[in-house]
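Support request, please re-run this one:
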Amino acid sequence: MTATQNSSTTETPAAVQQPVDAILRRLATRAMGLTGADIERIVREARLKARRGRRPIRYEDIEEGIRGNRPPVPYNLRWRWAFHEAGHAVVHHALDLGPVRGLNIDTGQGGYNLVGFHLWATDTSDWYGNMLTMLMAGRAAEKLMLKRVSSGSGGSDDSDLARATRIAFDMERTLGFGTEHPLLYRPHRDPGAVLDRDPELVARVHGRLEAALGRAAAILRRRRPTFHALAKALFDAQAMDETAVLQILTDGDLTL
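Re-run finished. Output below.
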């Protein structure tokens, strides 16, 4: 909620063609969304394929196993997921929240982004505001490029909208950043129940989400060439590791 490109097809072992850690990062990004059991089965089948060919196991064997485990993503949906995940990545980088470890739209079940966070920057009002902006960036990207949004930002308790709503709710109720009575600590196990009966709180929480959505859209418009380049690269590769993502993001920084 957060990989890779083919390497050479010669008989030279993959480990000789590129550093082992780079291969592992690429495989880890490609495997986003798979369970441990899925990966174990894929590796077992790749080993069997290599034994039958009387050769060492190769990166391509495992990648082909991962790709074969997933249905192809329809063209239009693939673009939507590419815009969505690229939006998250560009805004995460622009706000200097931390590294973007990888992006994947090759799961058949939606896109994934794997991101890290700088510990030194957490727990301030600005940091929470930046988090809201990053979480709303996928939806902002869809609206910017496709003029309409999908339900991909919501629909589950771990979705972008759910996480953003909880953060905005906590900012108003428990973190000391509320626009009304900020010193009151008012926790609740069921924010939805509180929001259902407090229209004024709903307005404040939703206002934070709207502001974050607008801010994310502004960042994407300002960094449109980088956003387009990353979305296109992700559409083509379907999975990108940290090195590939960072190359595009840092190249974009030089043009600002």
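The CA atoms of residues 38 and 134 lie 30 Å apart. The first strand starts at residue 100 and ends at 104.
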